[in-house]
Amino acid sequence: MHVVIPYVVAALLFALGVYGVLRRRNAILVLMAVELMLNAVNLILVAADSTIKSALTGVQPEAWANPVPEPRAGAIFALFVIVLAAAEVGVGLAIVLQYYRLRRAVILDDVELYRHDHERVTG
Amino acid sequence: MTAAVLIAGIPLLLGIAGLLLPPGDDEGRRRPAAALGIAGAAASLLVTLGLLLFARKPIELSTHWISLGDVDLTLGISVGHAALYVALAVCVVALFVQIYSVAYLHDDPRYAPYAAQISLFTGAMLLVVTSGDLIGVLVGWEVMGACSYLLIGHDRRLPEAPAAAVKAFLVTRVGDVGFLLGVAILIVDAGTSRIADVLTEAPHPAALILILAGVAGKSAQFPLHTWLPDAMAGPTPISALIHAATMVAAGVYVVFRLYPLYEQSPAALAVLGVMAAITILLGALSAMAQDDLKRVLAWSTVSQIGYMTGALAVGSPAAALFHLLTHAAFKALLFLAAGAVIHAVGTNYLSRMGGLREHMPITFWSFVAGLGALAGLPPLAGFWSKENVLTAATHATEGGGAVPVWVAWLVWLAGLFAVGLTAWYATRLLLWAFFGVSRAHGPDGPDWEVGFDDARYTQPALPHDPPAAMRWPILLLAIPSALLGLAAFAPGFRTALELDEPHLGVAIVLPLVLLALGATTAWWLWREVPGVDPATALGPARPLLAAGFRFDDLQDRFIVRPTRALARAVTTVDEKVVDATVEGTGTTTSRVGEALAYAHRMSLPAAAAAVLAGALLLGAVAVLFGAAA
Amino acid sequence: MTVADALMLALGAIAVGSGVFVVTSTHLVRAGFYLVVSLGAIAGLYLVLGAELVAWVQILVYVGAVVVLMLFAVMLTRAPIGPSKDLDRPALPAALIGGGVGLGLTVLLVDAFRWTEFELPPPGTGRRVGEQIFGAWVLPFEVLSILLLAALVGAIVLSRPDIGARPDPNAGPEPEGPPPGPVDESEEVVARLQRIAERQAAAQQRVRDQRAAAERAEQAELDVVEGELVEEARQTDPLADVVLRAHEARPKPGGPPPEPKRELPGAPEREED
Description:
The complex is a heterotrimer.
Chain A: H1 4-23, H2 27-55, H3 74-103, H4 118-122
Helix pairs in contact in A: 1-2, 2-3
Chain B: H1 4-19, H2 27-54, E1 59-68, E2 71-79, H3 81-104, H4 111-130, H5 134-152, H6 161-190, H7 195-198, H8 205-218, H9 227-230, H10 236-245, H11 247-257, H12 259-262, H13 266-288, H14 293-313, H15 317-345, H16 361-375, H17 381-397, H18 405-434, H19 468-483, H20 491-497, H21 509-528, H22 541-546, H23 551-600, H24 604-628
Chain C: H1 3-24, H2 28-48, H3 52-76, H4 91-113, H5 126-134, H6 138-159, H7 187-235, H8 238-249, H9 266-272
Helix pairs in contact in C: 1-2, 2-3
């Protein structure tokens, strides 16, 4: 198995995610691009997880590097990231919907961060 | 004998108490001020007299104060008979000045602080005289500087008074820096500040010359004499105090006190001698051309103090001290009498006086006594003391003393020549002010203005002798002016000063001839062209002499202006570099802050792009430099 | 080139290709579906890499939940069915940064791993992951559960405006009409919100009117005062007055001395002398 393949796939996906975040104006599409980036990271974690065993062959593991009998935590991390992504999507979509309720649009360019004059925002 | 502490202590304490009195013009406020001032001087005088009569041997009190490393600082009193005589002179002059001032400043609203400052001034001088410790001398020395500043600048309505006060303070301060350094070297060398112990050490010549700088400042010696004529802006009694008793005498007294050290250093004595010779001639020549009555007297003080330092330089401290005492008497008399004249005619320009003899007989005769003593007319006081100084110089020219022979010749010649000059300007002053017709109305009619309204008097109809409070001090001071010289025949006085017995030999002929020559020339000039100032005979040299050889201009050109330019440059550097750096830091920070705040308000997409681009940049940098490393 | 390599290449191509469509599609809904394809392909990659549980969780959570949620959001924000014109910004900065990131990461990873052959790990089972989660990683797991709870509560609070709503005096009236989309508020809540909005609008209008009236009055007053000031300054210039008077009153240095306060004490004595 050539591990460089999933790594390159992950790199390309991450790049696509960055491109999407910067290119898209619609908040939902931006969230999708963020999901792409998260999955790229997950892919790297899983790929590293599945190859670390063979990569470490012949290396005497240090005590701090080997907290559990089988050090394959990459998959666990991937699971955690998936959970985080789910939470992120939940809160993010709630914000998007609330914003849509206020503004009838989900265009990020129109979000004004520094103007706290509610009258002007709504009027 | 601990009463010796009181000599300086009483005036100092009463002076400080007097400063706390509220200023004011009404009688209720003036009385306590006057009482405090007169009581201080009188009590000091009584203590001094008592000690003089009952103390058999010198009083030495010393207490250890503090140890700084190897240096022991002490506080102490050391009063010999010579010091007591000087203290006596100071007290007498101060007492008369206080009494005189009550009348002279009878409607000055700031009389109370004035009287208190005189007390402080007197106390500081007495501290210098009686202190047995260099620290005490230094303290008194500096307090005198401060008091002279306050008193010279007393009359704020005069345009020149504040400038004169500042000048007096700054010029003497230049010398005081040297004095402080010299005293510090002496103390460190000896390991103690007690004068008796300091005198036993071999001195550092630099310390002695540094102290001479301070002496030149306080005693108005060349080249730091320029403050004294300008100090005439102060009230006339203050001039009497400064010239006769306190300020200028302090320098001479300090050299007298440290004389055992100076005896060991021909270099210091040579410096002192050259300084004295220049000062004698400079003062006498400048006094010849002045039109201002007080300035004539001021320049004569410069010249007479030159005699004292000259006597010190040629190895006769006794003669110096004797001349100090007689000078205190006749100069106080002259200034107080001059105050009476100014009080009466409302100006101090000689060209506005004349013909005062009939109207002010008491003042006139006081002036005769004072000027006679100043010129050295036998048998008045100045004759004996000046004769002593010249004899000492003659002795020193024979060699064998500590001082180089050429310095002794210089002092002797200067002193001798100045006798003639002194006689000339004394005669001119007397004739020009008191004889002839009154020039009070000037050539342009009667509507001239009062040039010096020191005591804020309007022009009286006719000049007159002063009121009693001013008259009696003058009369009483005339006695020692006339007779103090005869004290040289009193064995007790001679012993106290270690003075030689006066011997009227052939040596006195030469000064007397010069005296007669000077006086006659002045009289002849006055007689020959009536109504014209004898000083016009000086011709083109007169403006130069009147300006004191333009030393003020020289100092202004070569010291004051460069110093000011330097100060301006430093200010500019401070404002443009130091301040600008500090302020620039603040400005830059707020500008950067504004820029960052602007960046913070960027729209979301732009911010996201910036963040990601930054991350990319950082990653690229890390990879590139990581790979390079 | 093994079977695993071939599979990974194929799945990777699918994932990246559909990812490209996700970020370039002009149809919102299509972007969502391309995302499904891309995530599914990644799940396939996980399977090849031997992480079975992660793969199934990916399918369940991502494809099953996240994407569906997003499609709901697309629907609730009333996205158009057809292509949208205004979905994108100018491409250049995004392409530069994205391309830079992709190029950089690719170069980095390719340079790091080259064409190295690795031994494929044995297929993981749920047992191994379970042991690890509930053994070594139990604390992060619990923390994560709290995070999920917080996200849940947060999402609910955000999407229900009637929870914790404060009467904001500055807030303008609510958008007209019933709230759009998914918020199925009861009639009562809607009516209350409308009443609140109306009251606030009325109060704001009142305050605005008062403020405007006060400003008008102030302006009028100011105009009057300014007119008076100008008039007064024209009549007597106070500055000139101060300067000139001070100049005249200042003491003359060479002038006659001030009047004596008392008679000269010496004057009567002169006759005695």
